[in-house]
Amino acid sequence: MRRNKFLISMFFLAVVALLSACTNNAGEASAENEGMNMEGHDESSMDESMDDHSMEEEMEDESMDGHMDHDNVVSLNDSTGENELGIPPLLQSESDAETEYTIRAQKGETEIFDGVQTKTYGYNSSFLGPMLQFEKGETVTINLINELDENTTFHWHGLEVAGSEDGGPHEVLEPGDEDTIQFEVTQEAATLWFHPHPEGDTSEQVYNGLAGLIYIEDQNSKNLELPSDYGKNDIPLVFQDKIFDDEKQLNYEAAANEDGTVGDTSLINGTLNPKLTVDKEKVRLRLLNGSNARNYTFKLNTEDDFVQVATDGGFLNEPVSMNELTLTPSERAEVIIDFSKMDSDENIALINEDGATLLPFEITDQTGKNTEIPDEMNDFSVTEEEKSLPVTKEIELFGMMDMVTINGKKFDPERIDFTQEQGVTEVWEIYNKPDMMGGMIHPFHIHGAQFKILSRNGETPPKNERGWKDSFSIAPDETVKIAIQFKNKGVYMFHCHILEHEDNGMMGQVKVE
User: Fold this and answer.
1) According to the UniProt entry, which residue ranges have a biased composition of type Acidic residues (predicted)?
2) What is the rounded distance in angstroms from the CA atom of residue 122 to the CA atom of residue 125?
3) What number of other Cβ atoms are within 10 A of residue 287's Cβ?
4) What is the pTM of this model?
5) What is the full DSSP assignment across 378-447?
């Protein structure tokens, strides 16, 4: 089936290339970079572009194999709650004088199922990775080692660093290679993460287990006095879904779907059938959608409210009360649940939109620390100047399966799609173009910067998105405007964070000078 899809795709690409060669593309103007304009359309690269009608015909033919809008994806199995949730270890600095870490990408075996060793990837372990702690203002040194038998990179998702240290597909480490990066932490307190980003192989490496967490702290986060006892009332939750074969192995080649690989087995921090034991106190959950493609809508089975206090890149100005929260792949959010008001004997669990039990809670009779959530947590704002800036970058997301594009093109590592001046704020407009099947949600991510969402379809974004972001969900026929400034120079990726779409070329690059 995969070979047939490939042959069909190549046939249509050949036809489109022939038609494109005979067509006058009057709507495109020449500019820098051998004919590229600010919208990312490159006349010299039109042989890579795809005719919408041809693409849509192929999409219709293949729609039975895909999941266009992710509304009909396979359901997750309920967590039985038989295993206490594993907490990623806090990696200790190797130096007393500064913050220095060594991160190894490696293969291993992990007992996910009782008595079975599953082949996995991990950072400094057999599966997943540790938590790295940074402090705003400090200089961090990280030694990188590739102990895999394939190329990889180390991408620091959400971290504002120079392009040469960002870990995109240009910063490849071959098997056995080592490298050292060093940077100053300039951004505010946030929950970030790191994962591989090799061209064409990101989806499989993340699926096999390469993912780790980063906490940034600053004086404001300390002054807020939110729950911060790591692993006790400050809990990282890395949500991923997998398919295991009959031998309880992660057989990515068999499970892979070009429109986004999803599974029926839920893992949190790599733990199967997890539960979380909590005291009667407020508990801070740092949610990361670390899946390849699945969207999660988080709820409590009791329909009680919880409070969101932070987005991808920092604290909200004020806590936002809600009873459900949706995160697309790579998005993060920090929420607080008040277990002091709940009955220890009550059946309480975190569930998804389908009602599948993700994480049962076991509440002890022990009373924990009594903390209050401050009414004011940050001074984030969108200025009048930012609101009045013209759109300088237009991005059109389109397609499904292996026919995904940005501005009609697939990724080319030799092509610069946009340029932007360091330290200058610009407005990007991102549009998710629907197709004849309706289209699907794309999670959109930009490397190397935290940005502000200005509007969704011309309207002010919801309260829980009025904070620093590096990824966001964009629905079919939706237009999102963002204000973005890069603090550092270099080449940075922007792409759909459905990892199979990324690997299939739904990615571009901006050069910051």
Assistant:
1) 45-63
2) 5
3) 24
4) 0.88
5) ------HHHHHPPEEEEEEEE--TT--EETTB---TT---EEE-TT--EEEEEEE---TT----EEEEET
